[in-house]
Amino acid sequence: MINPLRGMKDLIFEDSQKFEYIIATASKIARNYGYSYIETPILEETALFKRSVGESSDIVGKEMYQFMDKGENDVCMRPEGTAGVVRAFISNKLDRQDANYRFYYYGSMFRYERPQKGRLRSFHQFGCESFGEGSVYEDFMLISMIKDIFDALQIDFSLNINSLGCSDCMPLYRTKLVSFLENIKDDLCEDCNRRIATNPIRVLDCKNEKCQILLQASPKLINNLCGSCDSDFTKLQTLLNEACISYEVDTNLVRGLDYYNKTAFEFISNNIGSQSAIAGGGRYDRLVEFLDGKSTPAVGFALGIERIMDLVILPESKREGLYLGGMNEESINSLLQIARKQLEVQKVTMEYKPKSLKAHLKSADKAGARTIGIIGDDELSNGTIWMKDLETKEEKTININEMLSL
Ligand SMILES: [Zn+2]
Ligand SMILES: [Zn+2]
Fold first, then answer.
1. Which one of 73, 126, 273, 340 counts the least CB within 10 Å of its CB?
2. pTM score, two decimals?
3. How far does the centroid of ligand 2 lie from the alpha carbon of residue 212, in Å?
4. How many domains is the chain partitioned into structurally?
């Protein structure tokens, strides 16, 4: 027997229904916000992720599903969705147009990490990326969209926001932070010490409790923002207040990826026992240029589908469609004709084997059908079908030829 690869699983029955429900809900809301669907390849050149996600990140450092293909190309299964969409934006020369482009995507992502509870090597994300709009109103609209998605899915969340500054204020802040960290580095953990040199901002979200206590006294970026970053961050908070979207400023929210600037946000599930991030995103105005495109402001987010699947409750399914069955072999031709006609307008479940009425009613119930249609011996000789609405209990006998000619 061949099993799925380690850390990978099939979505089937309730899981696949939840997946479909989440994607359908999120896609509809994204389209209402002006986003169109984009599908990019799962496999890309490894260089794309090294350059966009950043060599110092855990993803690129440890978790890439990377291999040489038969043509000796260094390739990688996408570990996240943004890089591919940005690559597509540039490959299709959309950076040369003076216009805004908004895309949504969803699909499988791959990270080669030690499988553990809640972490799969193949998982799913839904995301949106907006290109060309540099104003903070766009950041606000993205947050509003995620709120709408979680409201529609009836998932409780809390929202954390931060500003990561820009190429004017971030480097000055980084220098301040590094000199602070150098002074306390003997007391910081190994990871933090490594990051002081490679990516000092990431030290701020170290999960080590001892580090977190020491870092409380660290200089905060939001107190060191330049005029433009400061007024954008204030504006965002005003907009959220006016829209009654509650949030907290989390100065340790720094995103794991190197290309984020200005607005960063994270949605945390309020569900007891799973205080985990269910969505994250922010502005990444430098990434298009990093990847050799024309400098273009951009902002986006991604939802973690597996985490949301743990939280979502499927809406109760209503009885729907028609169940067809016969009590004799001879009725099959008429039943097939009726089925093919009815399939134009509703879901049809058909039983090929003759059974008793009682057995058919049981099967129709199991299939969740709204209506049952049965051809018994009397119906067969009269050219009719007996129908019953399983909700209203209304019964009638219909002429088959009349039904087919409708
Ligand atoms: Zn700035
Ligand atoms: Zn640490």
1. 273
2. 0.89
3. 7
4. 3
